[in-house]
Amino acid sequence: MSTTIQISDNVKLILDKMKMMKRESYNEVIERMIEDDLELNEKTKKEIEEARKGKSISHAEVKKRFGL
Prior knowledge:
Blueprint: H1 9-18, H2 26-39, H3 42-52, H4 59-65
């Protein structure tokens, strides 16, 4: 079963850029995006959320910690 959806011109341009092959369907592009999202494990999601909340360290701090 297929469903028609509406997307903005901007989203269509982004999807076009994400195609790996010219003839790849938008459905395939979206499926790849979903697979990539599902592959993120819970730890990674937590780390991303912490970074978004500012619970991360700066590049300068990393360099300092590693003596670079």
